[in-house]
Amino acid sequence: MPEPDYEQAIAWYTASAEQGFVPALFNLSLIYALGEIVPKDEQRAFELCYKAAEKKDPDSQYNLGHMYEVGKGVPRSEVDARIWFLNAADSGHSLAQLHLGEMCEFGRGGREDDTEAAVWYRKAAEQGETEAMFRLGVMLEHGRGVNQYEREAVEWYQKAAQLGHADSQNNLGLMYEYGKGVDKDEAMAAQWYRLAVDQGHPAALNNLGLLYEFGLGVPQDEAEATNLFFQAAEYNIPIAQTNYARMLERGAGCNKDEVEAAIWFRKAADQNFVLAQYSLACMYEKGRGVSKDDASALMWYQKAAAQGHAVSQYCLAVMYSEGRGGHKTDTLAVIWFRKAAEQEYAAAQYSLGVMFESGRGMEHKDEKQAAIWYQKAAEQGVAAAQFNLGVLYGDGRGVEKDDSKAFQWHLKAAEQNDADAQYNVGFMYRNGKGVAQNNELALFWFQRAAEQNDSGALYNLGLMYEEGVCQPQGRPDYVQAFQAYRRAAERGDAAAQYQLGKMYAEGRGVEVNWGVAANLFDAAAQRGHTQAMYELGVILLEGREEGGVIANQASGMKLLQQAAASDHEGAVEFLKRLEGGKKKIGAKMIPGKK
Fold first, then answer.
1. Of the candidates 186, 185, 207, 187, which has an alpha carbon nearest to the alpha carbon of residue 196?
2. What's the rounded Cα separation, in Å, for the pair 370 and 356?
């Protein structure tokens, strides 16, 4: 085969081009643009291409549009590029149709117009342009410029994917994974992701990693997931960097390394990826992988919160309310609790309710607003909000008093093992408040709360055992009563300390011991229990030599006077002994949580 003679070729192309022959103009333009057989001359290439384009040659019109688009041989002008792409597209040039669709979609060289973009993508796709198939699929999937039609989106993704288009293979995997436009099939999703991964597609690496992490469509394999996340992370993909950091943080599929995790979270956070910003804030707040630093935690929560991340908004509000990372400011706490609460973040709704109930961060408290936000959180299952809402209904604060609703909300919280709510449910069953009186259920809920060492429940259990409620033949069970009172007394419950003192004084469930009884009465009296003041006052006035309690009239009188000042009837009558040593002091319902 003879050697090519480039000089002769250039000479003949030039001669033909000077006569306006379009193929010669086109070929000569390419030769000068590439600069492989002649010195590169982009301006000359542009001039030749322009002449051919003016003669309505679609290939030249497309090339001219590209030259204007990138500023090759002519000052860059997207307006002129769009004009020449349109000329070529109108002549059926598929690449020009694709590029024109992109310019319409992204508003380059003219107004943004998704409808017009979809028209040109479809024309190019129908001519076999895989990138146009992909872009048309995206518009159909999301309903941009066309009616949303996920099934047709899948069809276009599949056509392009089968021709080896990596973006389409990845998107087709997503459609199968989430069942959009096609029956959900995670195994099929994995196959399409794998084809894209084989072409080094970063997003597909991450997506396939998630399938391996959770065992969706593939055997669960955290080591493989970590490897895929790492490969994607090296492409500087923030979501992959975040996922790789998660695995390092937990030691899932790799050695646990919180220091390295923090480094990768930081890489993604610096790209403004909100989940990484939140995770990095958590690490600074807890001192994991980095030195504990509330100021840095606050900064990263602020960045994530500013992007609308509800959990970060809540965490930021907590830091403001507690004064961590800067000055304590309830006003800012309220602002950020509200932002998170308005995104239906239940913990923030509850916290906002607390702020309104207490009046923190605002001019005055607003119990109506507190009730509104407690209800929102309560309906999402937050036990503390259910409890506090029950308290508001029971007290008639912020809502119309309604013992039935109070009971219903306390019961919901009690069923979630909230000890205070369990106590209140027991109290309401015991007293028939908001619900029919039922001693068996009262006993049941007091027992549930007592299992969590709730002192009020323990005290009330003691009363029920002592009174024989729900016991065989209604006989008192002093042993169980004593045990319940003792546990409550050890937790500082004044009423239980008093009742336990009475049992020691009267020998019920335990041998008589006046010394222990006096000590228990004293402990209760110091907590303001007036009956204990009275009982101890009488003991000290008279003394109990058999129990080693020496009379001390001054102390006894002082206690009786203190009790009398609190309108205690026995103390007012002074040393008259009360008939009613068995009288029990009724407990009160627990106030709202703060």
1. 207
2. 5
Is there a contact between 355 and 330 (Cβ–Cβ < 8 Å)? yes
What single-letter amino acid sits at 299? M
Give phi and psi for 270, each to the nearest 5.
-65, -15
578: left (phi over 0), alpha (psi -120 to 50) or beta: beta
Question: Tokens 């610096």, residue?
Answer: 270
Ramachandran area for residue 165 (φ above 0: left; ψ -120 to 50: alpha; else beta): beta
Residues 153 and 125: their CA atoms lie apart, in Å, by: 12
CB 259 within 8 A of CB 289: yes
Q: Report whether 525 contacts 559 (CB < 8 A).
A: yes
Residue the block writes with tokens 């994607």: 232
Q: Is the pLDDT of residue 586 over 60?
A: no
Q: Rounded to whole angstroms, how far apart are CA atoms 525 and 118?
A: 83
- Residue pair 101/70 in contact (Cβ under 8 Å)? The answer is no
The pLDDT tens digits for 365-421 are 999 999 999 999 999 999 999 999 999 999 999 999 999 999 999 999 999 999 999
- Rounded to 5 degrees, φ, ψ at 511 are -70, 150
Give the C-alpha separation, 495 to 479, whole Å.
18
DSSP string, 120-173: HHHHHHHTT-HHHHHHHHHHHHHTSSS---HHHHHHHHHHHHHTT-HHHHHHHH
What is the distance between the alpha carbons of residues 145 and 147, in angstroms, rounded to a whole number?
7
Rounded distance between C-alpha atoms, residue 186 and residue 57, angstroms: 48
As separate numbers, helices (DSSP H) first and strands (DSSP E) second, the chain gives 32, 0
Please give the structure tokens belonging to residue 483.
């045990």
Identify the burial level of 33 via C-beta atoms within 10 angstroms of its C-beta, where 0-12 means exposed, 13-18 middle and 19 or more buried: buried
pLDDT tens digits, 150-190 = 999 999 999 999 999 999 999 999 999 999 999 999 999 99
Q: Across the strands, what pairs with 544?
A: 549
What is each CA distance from 216 to 7, 181, 182, 195, 249, in whole angstroms?
63, 19, 17, 17, 22
Buried b or exposed e, range 571-585, using 16+ CB within 10 angstroms: beeeeeeeeeeeebb
Which three-class secondary structure state does DSSP give residue 218? Answer: coil
Phi, psi of 533 (to 5 degrees): -60, -45
Q: What is 222-244 written as a DSSP string?
A: HHHHHHHHHHHHTTT-HHHHHHH
> Could you tell me the two tokens for 162?
């089968």
Q: If residue 283 lies in a helix (H) or strand (E), which one and from where to where? A: helix 274-286
SS3 544: strand
The residue assigned the tokens 């250039």 is 10
**Would you state the structure tokens that stand for residue 64, as one six-digit string?**
């001219």
Cα(424)–Cα(428) distance, integer angstroms: 6
Which residue, 463, 454, 430, 431, is CA-closest to 444?
Answer: 430
Judge contact between 154 and 182, C-beta under 8 A. yes
